[in-house]
């Protein structure tokens, strides 16, 4: 397996993997609106500050990390918006390998931190804790329906 920095040229491949993971349990996101999904992926991978990595097993994309570089007072960080491993490959240690490779790539770029958010009631929560991420005390996410 190897990681590669990828982008807009791999949009369709990324969309397919992303939808296959996040439209089933435990996420059950409704990505049936193809145009909305297309715009979301472009938002994540098509900006000047976007930073996207793909994990390949041979020629097959089995993991993706979509985020961006953020300049913060504590140093420049990689803010991961979405990270996933193909569902049928989860539980094999592939996600841990992918995160370690991303960390190595961030160190090479001189970045100081990786930041991400997840939900407390999904397996990803324990996965990130197991891989050395710490929950930020006092950090709260807000949303408001319009």
What's the topology here?
Blueprint: E1 2-6, H1 11-22, H2 34-45, E2 50-57, E3 60-72, E4 75-85, H3 94-109, E5 113-116, H4 123-130
Parallel strand pairs: 4-5
Antiparallel strand pairs: 1-2, 2-3, 3-4
Helix pairs in contact: 1-2
Short description, anyone?
The chain has four helices and five strands.
Question: What does it look like?
Answer:
The chain is 33% helix and 28% strand. The protein is an alpha+beta fold and 146 residues long. The protein has one domain: Gcn5-related N-acetyltransferase (GNAT) (Aminopeptidase, 3-Layer(aba) Sandwich), CATH 3.40.630. It has a 5-stranded mixed β-sheet with strand order 1-2-3-4-5. β3 and β4 form a beta hairpin. α1 packs across α2. It is globular. The model has no long low-confidence stretch (mean pLDDT 96).
Give the CATH superfamily: Gcn5-related N-acetyltransferase (GNAT)
- Shape, principal axes of CA atoms: globular
Secondary-structure arrangement, i.e. CATH architecture: 3-Layer(aba) Sandwich
Secondary structure tally, helices: 4
Mean pLDDT: 96
H/E order of the elements? EHHEEEHEH
Strand content: 25-35%
- Major sheet: 5 strands, mixed
At CATH level 3, the topology is: Aminopeptidase
